[in-house]
Design brief:
alpha/beta, Rossmann fold, 6-stranded parallel β-sheet, 5 helices, 6 strands, SOS-response cell division inhibitor, P-loop_NTPase
Amino acid sequence: MRNFDSAYTAQQFLETVESAPWSGQESAHLATHQFNDVLPRIQALAMRTSEWITVIGGTRQVIDAMVQSGISRARIRWVAGKTQDQREWATEQALLASTSSVVLSWLEDLSPRMQQRLKMASKVSHTHSFVFNALPSLTPLH
């Protein structure tokens, strides 16, 4: 899984994942605000099959944006996961199950070990994986 900073553009991301070394499957770690930048790619991946699009964490706005992009709400499986551990476990299980064409997860700082586990699960299952981190809202200093 590759970590992307906020200066990384959507175009650079798309160019990188198109040439990713893991069997044509992508696994990326992005900032939450980059969701809209990669939504067209997620929509294109989702339209290739009739498998689930699994969202772990995320918000209702994420689901609504996916539906507005043309993904059927009936194909979206949304798992809330109250804690980081639950969301990490759910992400790994969703990848290993091989029932989703795309797995989107909202996870905070991942350990290098967990990053490797998710990358390997994505590779083994041939499932595209996008991990978004929840950036804290920055309050301006007065």
